[in-house]
């Protein structure tokens, strides 16, 4: 054998696949620590044909009945998944601690257990704790089986005994695989546990849901390959001080990734919100300054949201800035544009900005609403009633077009708004609403505030 054909020792990052000829403590590609492991690179050569396990067939002869989605019983979850759970499909549900992942899955398990056996395996809680939560949620079903395990081999044994149609594993970072070194939650253990559960789901046609922890940066803990192996990756998000929870699909082999599910977390469980816009508006009899309503797109879904601003004089040498629910860098940019292009002296004052209902708005289309809310608070003049603002503000003070304007205006008209400040060329007629097109921030201010105020 030639020297080039001999196996060479290499080192590979388990997160991103970067390889090196010697071990290093930090990956040179993704900069992760402790993820570079030794592997044996097989020598290159010809590959002999092997016995075929499943002969290829014409695509028209493939049976698709087993790939149809089964509704979960929660319409908002089905919206995100593309219809429901797929037999043999593996979904990874990630979210911060306490956001409501286990509550959501216990509701789904109880609904599915009315039709077929469901196995809920918990590695974090005792069976008694889960039973108490099920009592509170009213999620007791005869065919809902509960097990507390930390060994993936024991999970396979439980599956043999129960024969479930749905398997829920909460959470994958707490399980270990036999004959594999490493601590629970480590890169090696998470990879092996996930691979064993995915093989089980595919071979037996069991819909499987894996619960995953997240890091402090919001990413899914464990090796990156975990997200590649599963069929669906969804994120469960929400502020702990708010009842609103949002479910987003980061990856979906069976449906769209631009849908969003809205839920309300209550003491009695998770409730789907088919029309959540009312949570993000303040109900008041008289208009107040510093408030502007906008319409944001969460995936395909238009949501009405309210932006509030308070510009107050300060006696401190360094003005205070506080932001909640908005991108602080975009707020600072809009303030600079108001200062430079509209001659509104807001830089020397304390500025507080927030959203109503705890919703997070990161879309550029919120810029115009932020600017009008800041100008309204600075001049202490309320914006006209039943008015919304949609548009991105550029550094030159121009108002740029955004996507989905017609869908946004239709949602605003449905909720009773009659006037909209939008970018020029976006003011196509929508029944029930008067769209005012503007080219720059100055025109938007003149269309909403008296001329003598700015």
Automatic annotation (TrEMBL):
The middle region has homology to RecA with ATPase motifs including the RadA KNRFG motif, while the C-terminus is homologous to Lon protease. The keyword Acyltransferase does not apply. The gene is radA. It comes from Lipingzhangella rawalii. The keyword Hydrolase applies. This is DNA repair protein RadA. SUPFAM superfamilies: P-loop containing nucleoside triphosphate hydrolases (SSF52540), Ribosomal protein S5 domain 2-like (SSF54211). Residues 66-214 form the RecA family profile domain. HAMAP family: RadA_bact. ATP binds at residues 95-102. Residues 350-454 are annotated as: Lon-protease-like. The lineage of its organism: Bacteria, Bacillati, Actinomycetota, Actinomycetes, Streptosporangiales. Plays a role in repairing double-strand DNA breaks, probably involving stabilizing or processing branched DNA or blocked replication forks. InterPro entries: AAA+_ATPase, DNA_repair_RadA, Lon_proteolytic, P-loop_NTPase, RecA_ATP-bd, Ribosomal_Su5_D2-typ_SF, Ribsml_uS5_D2-typ_fold_subgr, Rubredoxin_2.
